[in-house]
Amino acid sequence: MKTILFTLSFLFANMAFSQTHQILKHNGEQLDVNFIKYENDMLHYSLNGSFEEIKISKYAVSQITNKQTNLTQKITDRIVVDSKSDYKLVQVLPKEKTIGLKQVANFKGVSTKTKGEPPMANVKHTSNRVKTQSASNGYPFVTIVENDGKYEAIAYAY
């Protein structure tokens, strides 16, 4: 009787900690995880046997599949930037939304300041310049930090 109870408890405990979802990233990597939630453009999950919550940006994830029901949900489409003319496809992200993306380059420069233009227009000009530079190198994501009329941009890829 004890062995039957032990065996049943072991099976139920194993099912409770088994990986229930598969995350497919845009770079081709597949992760077997326990999906927790999707909140603020971030997927929260834990690895097998761990209660630690790990985050990944939705921009790094292509799809998530529930292994039990075989239901697949598309998270984001892959952004392909081939040339300078694709600068409108480049996404400007805050630093916290780049988890799971690979940092590939840094750009530095002087922010655009046009006499008579409001500060918001200057930010837009600087953003367009950084997006164009990022697109010419084929990078789909960028973060921009401005300080005292200068900017630093960090480019990310899958």
Write a brief caption for the model.
This protein has two domains: 2-74, Roll (SH3 type barrels), CATH 2.30.30.100; 84-157, 2-Layer Sandwich (Dodecin subunit-like). 21% of the residues lie in helices and 38% in strands.
Q: What's the alpha carbon Rg, rounded to whole Å?
A: 22 Å
Main beta sheet, described?
6 strands, antiparallel
The overall strand count is: 10
Order of helices and strands: HEEEEEEEEHEE
Keywords: Signal
Signal peptide: 1-18
Describe this structure in words.
- With 158 residues, the protein is an alpha+beta fold.
- It has two domains: 2-74, SH3 type barrels (Roll); 84-157, Flavin-binding protein dodecin (Dodecin subunit-like), CATH 3.30.1660.10.
- The chain contains two helices and ten strands.
- It has a six-stranded antiparallel beta sheet, with no helix packed on it. Strands 7-9-10-8 form a four-stranded mixed beta sheet, covered by helices on one side.
- A hairpin with a 4-residue loop joins strand 1 (21-25) and strand 2 (30-39).
- The longest helix is centred in the last third of the chain and has 18 residues, at 119-136.
Topology overview:
Elements: H1 2-16, E1 21-25, E2 30-39, E3 42-46, E4 54-57, E5 61-66, E6 71-74, E7 91-92, E8 102-110, H2 119-136, E9 141-147, E10 150-157
Parallel strand pairs: 7-9
Antiparallel strand pairs: 1-2, 1-5, 2-3, 3-4, 5-6, 8-10, 9-10
